[in-house]
Amino acid sequence: MYGSDGVNEDSERTAFRKTEKKYKLYYDNNKSSKKKKKPRPVDLSEVIDFKSVSESFTRNNDVHLPIGVSKLECQFARPVFSLDKCPGFYFIPEALSIEEQYRWIKESLVSFPEPPNRTNHNAVHGAIHDLFNAAKDRKVLVEEEKIILPGEEDAHTHKWEWATCDEPSGNTNTSKSISASVLLRKLRWSTLGLQFDWSKRSYNVSLPHNKIPDALCEVAKKMASPAMPVGEEFQPEAAIVNYFASGDMLGGHLDDMEADWSKPIVSMSLGCKAIFLLGGKSRNDEPLAMFLRSGDIVLMAGEARERFHGIPRIFTDTENAEIDCLEKHFSGEDDTCYLEYIKTSRININIRQVY
Ligand SMILES: O=C(O)CCC(=O)C(=O)O
Ligand SMILES: [Fe+2]
User: Fold this and answer.
1) 39-64 residue pLDDT tens
2) What is the Cα–Cα distance from 139 to 237, expressed in whole angstroms?
């Protein structure tokens, strides 16, 4: 999966990599350091825009869809689009209401990174509790190195604990500290349900885990239905939550660790707009680029699961992020921290049936 995008000379030359570079965020070299850095302009004319496809479809039912795009004949509350050349790939624009987006953004920041769910921070700091609230309260994670008394050599532990900024930590020697807001910014992924072991690139069923929350299961089952064989119901068993800040990318990869590829991956976009690349079975195949906006759902099942895909770009500037409606919804007093986060971030929740 993610680790598989080892950058070597060959992969640097593939069609997928070239397209990633085309859309990736670069800054123009500004001679005068006083001027604000400006993103290099990028030609977006070839990026498929399912929002405008959907809008013209809803306005006028017999609209001619762009070449290669079809509307799926199914009983679903919203129009579902497919690509003629990519069986098993489905795009549901604006599938989630603003209220649903609001809810899943909050859950992604508060409850999803809670242990026993693992995050990218586990490897360095162990299990971290209450990250979002600690960031809100401007706390600092401090590595406490216990002073070893004679005879207590075995009790030597490194333990990370929250402290308020001005709080000296007890009778210990503090060696390192990092602010919660930096850790929140550096949160890259969390895993729900069955835990994925990135080092072994497989699910480790022996790791402690909770079931996927019922409400998320319900959404995933409903959204998966256009890609499911008639009479079968999607069984959400694991989910990966990806957190993107400006300049972050998700390199081209396959999600090939689940047993049954006929079942879809249900992928929800939240926050700032992104570009998604859908490639072929080889990195040498030219990928298609499409916009992903907050509330969009992508399904990848069957043959589509053999296609390389990734995120080369998220847009965090007000003009391109397209989160005005969402921002308005985060208007409560308690919403300020969420709003600050999501204005410059994107969250993706992708839900999987593992067996
Ligand atoms: O962020 C996205 O939309 C795609 C995520 C993805 O492909 C993955 O987590 O495997
Ligand atoms: Fe993926």
Assistant:
1) 999 999 999 999 999 998 888 776 77
2) 33
Domain that holds residue 211: 11-115+187-352
Looking at the DSSP assignment, which residues form a beta bridge with residue 298?
A: 91, 267
Tally Cβ neighbours within 10 Å of residue 228: 17
Q: What is the pLDDT of residues 297-306, one digit of tens each?
A: 999 999 999 9
The verdict on the CB of residue 240 being under 6 Å from ligand 1 is yes
User: In terms of domains, do 143 and 108 share one?
Assistant: no
Q: Residue 259's domain is classified under what CATH number?
A: 2.60.120.590
Q: How far apart are CA 10 and CA 89, in angstroms?
A: 28
Say what the ipTM of the complex is: 0.99
Q: Is residue 6 part of a domain?
A: no
- What's the 71 CA to ligand 1 centre distance in angstroms? 23
70 lies in the same domain as 103: yes
Nearest to 91 by CA among 192, 216, 235, 227: 227
